[in-house]
Amino acid sequence: MARGPKKHMKRIAAPKHWMLDKLRGVFAPRPSPGPHKLRECVPLLLLIRNRLKYALNYQEAKVICNSRSIKIDGKIRTDMTYPCGFQDVISIDKTEEHFRLLHDTKGRYLLNRITQQEAAYKLCRVKALGMGAGAVPHIITHDGRTIRYPDPLIKPNDTVKVNLATNKIEDFAKFEVGNICAITAGHNIGRIGTIQHTEKHPGGHNIVHVKDKIGATWATRQQNVFVLGTGNTAAISLPRNKGIKLSIIEEASRRAQKAGKRD
Predict the structure, then answer these.
(1) Residue 72 and residue 60 in contact, taking contact as beta carbons nearer than 8 Å
(2) How far apart are CA 172 and CA 230, in angstroms?
(3) Tens digits of per-residue pLDDT, 32-58?
(4) Predicted structure pTM score
(5) Which helix (H) or strand (E) holds 136?
């Protein structure tokens, strides 16, 4: 058995949401260690080559990364296997494009095009609240940030709006009934709705009940809920489908309507 960390990933073992085909190679780009988990991120290479189609192959994507033209959360990244995750802001200066990584209702990452003003901040979910050396309070966010001296009202499961240039908190949204939220894991990943109520289960997982715009309701674990804003107003621009999950029959009928319009 080899010693040390694994450096390779077979294509078959890659996460399904990367959407890599089986026959176009043996290996997949293994994400570097970073702010997002291996199975919950997508390497920068796949965004450039497979999603945005700015490169035809691995070598072209490498040239683009080495040209220092890709920024993630306001910082230049040349590592083509850098792990990009939920709410990350990807900026391309040469094309003046900005994208925010969100989920669609099938669990795949979605590059949501945003304005330059919106690319100046991101939303971060508070994972933990702690006290550091010298009794300095700090919070730890879902993307590995440590932010000192947060507002005393901020608690775990809340969402903070972080300025990417200064790493300072501009605003925050509480994990409360009536606030808009997105689901980031589980069977309902990608759906967007408002929090209805929370079931407390001491020693187990708290269950949150959510309701979307069309009246559909579902329940998920509290750790899967990411608050997007206060009330029904999200602090970011939402995807085109607004997080509404369609049934298989509804999807088929929409495809048939589009095909009819083309004909």
Answers:
(1) no
(2) 9
(3) 999 999 999 999 999 999 999 999 999
(4) 0.90
(5) none
